Amino acid sequence: MFNVASHRYIEHVSLAVSDEVWHQLHPDAGRLSRRAVARVWIVIGLALALVVAGTTVWQSGTVVPQLSWDLSGIKATEPRSDMVGIDVRITNTGLATVIIDSVGRSGPGLDLVRTQGQFPVRLGPTMSVGVILFYRITDCARAPVGSWPVAVQVHRSWGIQTANPRYGLGDSDFPWQRSVTGPWCHSQR
């Protein structure tokens, strides 16, 4: 009802601005000046350059190390015990050289006993290093089921930074610990 009433009211109201006033208004009123348009394009160009520069610095590995890792093999001890070794290859996929201080970490159900490899190691772009991580399986039920990255400690000018490299060509959900704990845990049932 309100809409119908207001519509009828609007039909009977005369325009507040006459045609003579509209003709007197400047046609460029409200437009940006050429100088303002130039400033806008400069700001857009600078913002785009900043985004490209930030992405390049990020991908180069200067701020955050760009590392990947691959699982080369699993080494079970003979006779079979709760100790297992995983052979991994860490690759620098960034443009900046990184210094790796250590690789691996303990977690629920898996205790990192030792690491076989020489550290610290300097990795230039596209260079790799092989490492064997020896774990003791302490609790099958607590071992991580989902993604659990291989931690890499990288020396930076501001201190030690822990990086979680992506697996292979970007699959971050590779549950490598299942391959390590599975045979031992199933044999203990």
Summarize the structure.
By secondary structure, the chain is an alpha+beta fold. It is built from four helices and nine strands; from the N terminus they run αααβββββββββα. The radius of gyration is 32 Å and the shape is elongated.
Q: What topology, given as strand order, has the largest sheet?
A: 4-6-2-1-9
- Indicate the mean pLDDT: 80
Low-pLDDT regions? none
| CATH level 1 class label of the largest domain | Mainly Beta
CATH architecture of the largest domain: Sandwich
What structural class do the secondary elements suggest? Answer: alpha+beta
Question: Would you report the number of β strands?
Answer: 9
CATH topology (fold) name of the largest domain: Immunoglobulin-like
The biggest beta sheet is recorded as: 5 strands, mixed
**Head-to-tail CA distance between termini:** 77 Å
The percent range for helix content is 25-40%
Tell me the number of helical segments per DSSP (H or I, 4 or more residues long).
4
Which terms summarize this structure?
Immunoglobulin-like; 4 helices; elongated; 4-stranded antiparallel sheet; alpha+beta; 2 domains
Describe the structure.
The chain is an alpha+beta fold and 189 residues long. The protein folds into 2 domains: 1-63, no CATH class; 67-187, Immunoglobulin-like (Sandwich). Helices cover 30% and strands 31% of the residues. It is built from 4 helices and 9 strands, in the order H-H-H-E-E-E-E-E-E-E-E-E-H. The protein has helices at residues 2-12, 19-24, 34-60, 176-187; strands at residues 67-76, 83-92, 98-103, 110-116, 121-123, 128-137, 152-156, 159-163, 166-167. The strands form 2 sheets. Strands 4-6-2-1-9 form a 5-stranded mixed sheet, covered by helices on one side. The longest helix is centred in the first third of the chain and has 27 residues, at 34-60.
